[in-house]
Specification:
heterodimer; A: mainly alpha; 0% strand; B: 363 residues; mainly alpha; globular; transmembrane helix (chain A); transmembrane (chain A)
Chain lengths: 353, 363
């Protein structure tokens, strides 16, 4: 009995340390991503390039362009969408108490995908217009799903999972319809346009640039503190709606806030790079395995690690194997993430892994 | 409060004598009595028969029902109308078969996985079939629907077996959560491999995108006939599992307490599911919405009893698929919208309406 608090404390410290390890991992991987690879930059050169870029000083031919216009924005956006997807997935999985829940399943990714493919195929759009369409599509679909499920919840029973279940089912229904729209448009488009759309649909950092990085950065500056604020009520909501209400949490308001934050996180990340498969789905379980408990910061960091590692592979190693095809990062997150999740599953000794 | 009382009252009025004959109150979730459910099932069969007739009659060239009947009973090869009707028979049969298979498989899958997100695809079937078809196109240059079926079927079967084996590893065997996660994980991996090929080969994408939408058009008997034995075996297996699924729904521990050999029964059910949806996917391509949503919709009528959910899904799913196929033929004349697209576009609003009504969508 007397040991229990000590153990609890130790576990808390352990997971904090592990989270610090993850954070260090993100920093190291970021450095590796920018400095090494098919084009290598030394550390002094990197700072010289950076200084020259910021002060408008003398640029190193070639190297300045590759670092400042390709590698660095790619790495910055990769890190940020990783954080956003990781957080969004962990929020959904915790809130809905369903390990299958993630923005992909809930329909948000499909909202973004359908809007983006419509923009690409019907309006011939590219770049920022596609991102804007994706963001609008994701938010509109999320709003629609929430409206559908909330209407029933008002007069439904107070059973904890009922509202969550309806949300999931509405998401599944809408996702299927949007998926059909995407597939249909793919058959109607010119094959080259369809190939472009396919790259977007897989989630790709190939068109990363500083404008996009800036927009994403400001979005995260607002959203990440919001997650920190909502984390407390989330932990109480996990106990079930009735218990949470008993503990003084305003269940409906908290749930709405959670949904809005999680959806916006997933939506801005999807708008920046397309629906990168599996990061949101995978980050939570891996983080839990690594730190020993469900943790939002750890999930976010794991998300960033996954995206950086996968895109490093996609940008540097895959072209060697595939005659120069730069694969979309989402292809790699799926192809490498899947065996990893399977391994987690097989080696897990807890039932809820 | 007011709302639920009204429903209870009106429900009592509707079901009347049947409820009283049944004596003490049954499970409170059962929205309709046995007799009423049988009547609904019969009505669904009638609707299905009407749709099958309509599927022969309606299309780019409309045929009067009388001529359809003539074409079926006394076929005259010289008659153009008769030829059109005959050409529509395989797709109608395929719609019936694939729809029934997907509905049945979806209902059983939700029972096995105890997860509202579980559709037949969750076992990796769609992803396995898709990757195999893409491989068939890319490596072997396959280009016909009858060429795709064996690739799709083998891909679906291998993926499902791998998912089941992975989920069975570890101490507690193939639990629902592990099955669902293993299926989702393997699917994502297979789709990624598929996309590696599609991103690097535009020719492959050009053929694959037409398989990807799923549909019953353009398939002749050489596509439909090979699937029938597999579907028959799968349907028999799954239809026999109603009682098993009912006890599995209570949780593994209770099911075990009731004398079920949980691991074995789940494996047998999974075999039936894979036969059904693997074959359906091989024949008609991935038609995602039907298996997922029809069982949910059916629950609103049947309540949670799988002995009713399974036959209802078997009949209701082809209603959706045939209706979608018929609508798809006429909305975009002279072209067609594939049934795989229309099922989702027609089904989603209906499904959303059902959710809005807010009655138990739980499992």
């Amino acid at each position: 009995m007397t040991l229990a608090p000590v153990m609890e404390q130790r576990r808390g410290r352990l997971s904090l340390n592990r989270t610090a390890v993850l954070a260090a991992g993100v920093v190291i991987l970021f450095a590796v991503y920018v400095l090494l690879g098919s084009y290598t930059v030394t550390i002094p050169d990197f700072f010289r390039i950076l200084a020259a870029h910021l002060t408008g000083g003398e640029k190193i031919p070639g190297a300045s362009f590759i670092v400042m216009e390709n590698k660095l924005p790619r790495a910055v956006i990769g890190t940020m969408i990783g954080l956003a997807f990781g957080l969004a997935g962990a929020l959904f999985q915790t809130m809905l108490r369903n390990p299958l829940a993630s923005p992909d399943v809930i329909g948000i990714s499909y909202g973004a995908s359908a809007a983006a493919v419509i923009a690409i195929v019907i309006f011939g759009a590219s770049g920022a217009v596609v991102s804007g369409a994706a963001l609008a599509g994701a938010l509109a679909v999320a709003g629609l799903i929430y409206a559908i499920s909330a209407g029933g919840a008002l007069r439904g029973t107070s059973r904890g999972s009922a509202a969550g279940n309806r949300l999931v089912l509405a998401g599944v229904g809408i996702a299927a319809a949007l998926h059909a729209v995407v597939n249909f448009l793919m058959t109607r488009a010119d094959i080259r346009t369809a190939a472009d759309a396919l790259v977007w649909l897989n989630g790709s950092l190939n068109s990363a640039n500083w404008d996009r990085a800036g927009v994403l950065f400001f979005a995260l500056v607002v959203l990440i503190p919001a997650v920190a604020v909502i984390a407390g009520p989330l932990r109480i909501l996990e106990l079930g709606d009735d218990a949470a209400a008993g503990l003084g949490v305003r269940v409906n308001a908290s749930r709405l806030a959670l949904v809005i934050i999680a959806v916006t996180l997933a939506a801005v990340a999807t708008a920046a790079a397309g629906p990168v498969a599996f990061v949101a789905f995978l980050a939570g379980p891996i983080a839990r395995r690594f730190t020993g408990k469900a943790s939002l910061p750890a999930s976010a960091l794991v998300g960033a690690l996954i995206v950086l590692a996968a895109d490093y592979f996609a940008a540097n190693l895959a072209p060697l194997l595939l005659d120069g095809t730069v694969l979309p990062v989402g292809v790699i997150t799926g192809a490498l993430g899947a065996p990893f999740l399977l391994w987690l599953l097989v080696t897990a000794n807890r039932k809820d892994a | 409060m007011t709302h639920s009382t009204t429903t209870a009252a009106s429900r009592g009025g509707d079901t009347g004598t049947a409820v009283q004959v049944k004596g003490p109150k049954g499970p409170s979730r059962g929205p309709a009595s046995g007799g009423k459910r049988a009547a609904w099932l019969l009505a669904a069969v009638v609707v299905l028969a009407i749709l099958a007739g309509a599927s022969l009659a309606i299309g780019a060239r409309g045929i009067p029902l009388g001529t359809v009947w003539e074409a079926l009973t006394s076929f005259d090869p010289a008659n153009g109308d008769h030829a059109v009707v005959h050409a529509r028979i395989p797709r109608t049969v395929l719609g019936l078969l694939a729809g029934g298979a997907l509905g049945l498989a979806g209902a059983a899958m939700q029972g096995v996985a105890r997860n509202p997100l579980a559709d037949p695809g969750i076992m990796g079937v769609n992803a396995g079939a898709a990757l195999a078809v893409v491989t068939g196109i890319y490596v072997f240059g396959v280009a016909t629907f009858s060429g795709y079926i064996w690739f799709a079927f083998i891909g679906a079967a291998v993926a499902a077996v791998v998912v089941y084996l992975i989920a069975s590893l570890g101490r507690d065997g193939a639990t629902p959560v592990k099955l669902a996660l293993a299926g989702a994980a393997l699917s994502a991996g297979l789709y990624s491999l598929m996309n590696v090929i599609l991103v690097s080969s535009q020719d492959t994408l050009d053929r694959f995108r037409f398989w990807q939408v799923g549909g019953v058009a353009g398939r002749d008997w050489s596509v439909v006939l090979p699937g029938i034995p597999f579907l028959a075996v799968g349907a028999v297996i799954v239809l026999l599992t109603g009682r098993i699924l009912n006890s599995l729904a209570l949780g593994d521990d209770i099911a075990r307490g009731l004398g079920q050999r949980v691991g074995l029964t789940r494996a047998v059910t999974a075999l039936g599911i894979v036969l059904l949806c693997g074959t359906a996917t091989a024949l008609a391509g991935p038609i995602a919405f039907v298996g997922l949503v029809v069982p949910h919709a059916v629950r609103f009528l049947t309540g949670p009893d799988y002995r009713w959910i399974l036959p209802f899904s078997l009949v209701a799913a082809p209603v959706l698929l045939l209706a979608a196929d018929i609508i798809g033929r006429v909305v975009l004349l002279p072209g067609e919208v594939p049934a795989g697209i229309m099922t989702a576009l027609v089904g989603a609003p209906v499904f959303v309406w059902l959710i809005r009504r807010g009655k138990g969508a739980g499992l």
